[in-house]
Amino acid sequence: MTTVVPTSEEDPVLPVVRFTADLSWADAGPEVAEPLVTRLCMEAQECMVMGRWLDLASLMLTSAELVFPKVSDKDLECIFTVICNLASKLENPDDELEMAKLISTKISQQPNDKPAMRLKILFNLYNLLEGPDSRFFVYMQALNLALNGKVIDHIVPSFKKIDSFLKEWNIGVKDQRNLFLTIANVLKENKSSGKDSFKFLTKYLATFSGEDSCVIGEAKEEAIRAVIEFVKAPDTFWCDLLDMPAVGQLEKDAKYALVYQLLKIFLTQRLDAYLEFQAANSTLMKSYGLVHEDCITKMRLMSLVDLGSNESGQIPYALIKDALRINDDEVELWIVKAITAKLIDCKMDQMNQVVIVSRCTERIFGQHQWHSLRLKLATWRGNVASLISTIQANKVVEEGSQAMQGMAIR
């Protein structure tokens, strides 16, 4: 025997069930549609009586998906808000996770049908959920929907909050890898976000530190991609790829050793080393879509950075000309380019044909750079302490002098 649940006009579940069911079966004619709609409404009532919220959500999603192309975005948002609100009736985190999987998977199945609306529904669901596991699952579904439905711009702003999301979700390393790689892939499709794509790709590769060789091997293709993206990027001049085991595995790989060698040239050597490499591996360079002229431009700037890291803090014009393989009248042009790219802070002494460097960007930041920074900080600390001592000594002398003058006046 069926028990009918008494509902008020404020309860939106049954009206939504009837509305979507009516639309779903409208084309079948009243003789077919009415019994089916009635049966669906009765099933929904039974689910509500017995607290079978997952079954109720499944029933509602079936009809809602059928009417997706037939109703306005406003109506769709209302329908799915009611469905998503069923998650709030679940107190068990595992049940909530199952509900989140059920709804978000269903929403993501047709990414090309109103993708922006589907993404909005997933965001609404995310905000209704309490459990971190449920939220993480829905967010990953939203990422893939944005990528497959080509509505990337709608989800990119959320990437600024990834650090706080990670604290909230408290996910494991494998989930972090999946997250970082998916975000990198999403940003790769957005031409204006190449730098951010590279950032998340390096975050992905960094998660393989401390893993055994079998696990690290999973990241080989992404490691190659990161190297090539770094070499191609016209505005990225430093990275820590060389310190990552996921990238280091390429050094002894028969197929990809040359890719690792190219990265090492860009991070530790100068233009002459690159030109020698390119002459011997031009086919390899072309196979990865690397443009020789662009690489020369980047290597000239990075060679200038390398020259600027000289302890003397001065670079003769003649040395720049030879290292960058340029004419005399081009030296200052390349210095200006390096300043514009914020690679160095310097002054050009045209009289003495020398560049005086006050700051220079590091291409890599490893143990040597940390040691150098430690020495500079120690020197700075000593200078500050000496300055404070001098000021205090002068203050004592000045106070003593003032005291003597006061005695003389009396």
TrEMBL record:
UniProt KW keywords: Cytoplasm, Initiation factor, Protein biosynthesis
Return any one Pfam family short name. Answer: eIF3m_C_helix
Q: What is its main location?
A: cytoplasm
Q: Which domain of life is it from?
A: Eukaryota
Which function does this protein serve? Component of the eukaryotic translation initiation factor 3 (eIF-3) complex, which is involved in protein synthesis of a specialized repertoire of mRNAs and, together with other initiation factors, stimulates binding of mRNA and methionyl-tRNAi to the 40S ribosome. The eIF-3 complex specifically targets and initiates translation of a subset of mRNAs involved in cell proliferation.
Please give the PANTHER family that the UniProt record associates with this protein: COP9 SIGNALOSOME COMPLEX SUBUNIT 7/DENDRITIC CELL PROTEIN GA17, EUKARYOTIC TRANSLATION INITIATION FACTOR 3 SUBUNIT M
Q: Could you describe the subunit structure of this protein?
A: Component of the eukaryotic translation initiation factor 3 (eIF-3) complex.
> Could you tell me what this protein is called?
Eukaryotic translation initiation factor 3 subunit M
Q: What is the lineage of its organism?
A: Eukaryota, Viridiplantae, Streptophyta, Embryophyta, Tracheophyta
